[in-house]
Amino acid sequence: MIRLTDVSKWYQMGEVRVTALDNISLSIDQGEFVVVLGPSGSGKTTLLNMIGALDTPSSGTVQINGTNLSKSNRGESFKFRRETVGFIFQSFNLFPSLTALENVQFVLDVVGRKNGSGKLAAQTLESVGLGDRIHHFPHQLSGGEQQRVAIARALAKNAPVILADEPTGELDFRTGVQILYLLKKQAEAGKAVLIVTHNREIARISDRVVELHSGQVASDGPPKGGKVPVSELMW
Known about the structure:
Elements: E1 2-13, E2 16-28, E3 33-37, H1 44-51, E4 59-64, E5 67-68, H2 74-84, E6 85-88, H3 100-110, H4 117-127, H5 143-157, E7 161-165, H6 173-188, E8 192-196, H7 200-203, E9 208-213, E10 216-221
Parallel strand pairs: 3-8, 3-9, 6-7, 7-8
Antiparallel strand pairs: 1-2, 1-4, 4-5, 9-10
Helix pairs in contact: 3-4, 3-5, 4-5
């Protein structure tokens, strides 16, 4: 489903070339729940942006469901993101002038699911514990609540690929576990779920753990000690 082949990404800063990804090859199939670990600056978010068509590689190829994102123009990349990817941003990226309900409903309208979009948006917000906050604006919500709106927006879209950048970073333990249950269900339903995080505890529930160091894949395999259910997590 997701295929990265010899992908590198570098940025030219004056006379200095900064390498974010260095010749990465990686495959993720439908129904896989994959966690990417690594220190700050290791290339985690850049990798997520490549798969989500928010950036293009300097070399190598990125293919998802047969679509070569490496050669996509801006319009093609937008169409791909709209139809294929549910993105949970670390910075939330909510529309400040829209309520929680309207933020989720907006995405549904964009992807052409206008019929019943209000009801679906409300149901999805309820599933992340925000049933009583649907008419609040982002500035009226805590950081954790804003994060849950961002998660609801990605889930409601029902895209085949879910990309999450630190999805539990602003959440308390109980809410974080609830969200991880929901993301696990997405993988069990056949979606490819990729989580970027600093939290090694989350890696214990994954099918695979990919560790990045200095823009390269340092390891790729099942979690150490074996996979555990979400109920066994502690952090």
